[in-house]
Amino acid sequence: MIEQESTCDMVSKPFNVSAEWILARRPALETVVRPFATVLGRRAKIIAALNGRLPATLLQRPVNESGMSWLVRHLSGQWNDGMAKVMGDLLPALNASFPDLSADFQTIDEMLPQHPDMAGTLYRAWLDGNQAAFNALAEDRRISAGALGFVVHWAMSTLFHALRIKWQEAQTPIPEITGHCPFCGSLPAMVLLLAPDQRINAFLSGGGGQAFLYCGLCGHQWRFARNRCPVCETDDHHRLVYYQEAENTGQRINVCHQCGHYLLCLDLRQTQAPPSLEMAAVGMIHLDVLAREKGFRPMASTPWNRID
Ligand SMILES: [Zn+2]
Ligand SMILES: [Zn+2]
Questions:
Q1: I want to staple 50 with a disulfide (CB 3.0 to 4.6 A). Which of 113, 162, 179, 235 is the partner?
Q2: What's the 262 CA to ligand 2 centre distance in angstroms?
Q3: pLDDT for 152 beyond 60
Q4: Which tens digit of pLDDT belongs to each residue from 19-76?
Q5: How many Å apart are CA 228 and CA 231, to the nearest integer?
Q6: Ligand 2: centre distance to CA 271 (Å)
Q7: Are residues 58 and 74 in contact, defined by beta-carbon separation less than 8 angstroms?
Q8: Domain ranges in the chain?
Q9: Where are the alpha helices (H) located in 8-130, listed in sequence order?
Q10: 295: left (phi over 0), alpha (psi -120 to 50) or beta
């Protein structure tokens, strides 16, 4: 039986504050925003607990030197137990927030202690983009591949957030900046626009008119050319356009007609940011829908934009 738990504490606060901020502006998103606030709050607690347990030897060189493969090699051998624990720790919040998937969550929760290698196998399949391995495991266990992917995605982002925080604490040299996250190699989930002297946290420093890409998997933010597509790197302004609602100029979607991708854009020069950027992204889910209707696809998959 998956036990339920309250998320009312200080670690969850940024997510609750952000949820209220979004719902005051867009009350129709209540059934989307509340569940994600609960899971993000739970994940924050797990990340904080993980920080003291991560081996420093994992992070002695820039992770992105050889892309994701470096992390995969190191994590899959050492982190079977850690990965299983992260998944198990997330399941109560996922179960409380997404009751339609409850039967699948229950099966996953029961499988974890019985199959010590399963979590490692799942992480590896996810990182390798090995959908066939994923589907085979889901079919074998009679659970939906979508629910399994949802759980693994949350667990991956939990682990990668903890690793990325450790990496920044260690002040590991940052490799050359591209459209891919310099820590984990993912494409961005969002771009943030800031005024020249604006700072939203300790990692966002530097002068000039600024665009920062935000990684949905590990939470890293890095500076990038404002008028360039992070995927195909075109800077042809005829190919790069954006859509926004007339009454809400702080939120928009940037689309690239060259590669067909879209990216959520939060213009912090126009709007006060809520404390959690991830909650802000959840609150822009209507723009995800709009971009997909126009035939564009997201640069990065997130737990909120993968729900159809
Ligand atoms: Zn990242
Ligand atoms: Zn492009």
A1: 162
A2: 8
A3: yes
A4: 998 999 899 999 999 999 999 999 999 999 988 777 665 555 545 544 454 555 556 5
A5: 9
A6: 26
A7: yes
A8: 13-169, 190-298
A9: 13-25, 30-51, 68-78, 80-97, 102-114, 118-128
A10: left
Report which bound ligand comes closest to the CA of 220. 1
250 CA distance to ligand 2 centroid (A)?
22
Enumerate residues with CB within 5 Å of ligand 1 (an ion): 181, 183-184, 186, 215, 217-218, 220
**Which of the ligands is closest to the CA of residue 218?**
1
Of the candidates 158, 191, 174, which has an alpha carbon nearest to the alpha carbon of residue 59? 174
Closest ligand to residue 186's CA: 1
Give CA–CA dist 53/85, Å, rounded: 12
Ligand approaching nearest to the C-alpha of 256: 2
d(CA 19, CA 38): 10
Give the three-state DSSP class for 283: coil
Q: Rounded distance, CA 207 to CA 292, Å?
A: 34
Tell me, in angstroms, the distance from the centre of ligand 1 to residue 184's CA.
4
Q: Hey, CA dihedral for 215, 186, 261, 306, is it positive or negative? A: negative
User: Ligand 2 centroid vs 51 CA: distance in angstroms?
Assistant: 35
Tens-place pLDDT, residues 96-120: 999 999 999 999 999 988 887 888 8
* Ligand with the closest atom to the CA of 159: 1
CA of 215 to the centre of ligand 1 (A): 5
CATH of domain 190-298: 3.90.1670.10
What is the 264 CA–ligand 2 centroid distance (Å)? 14
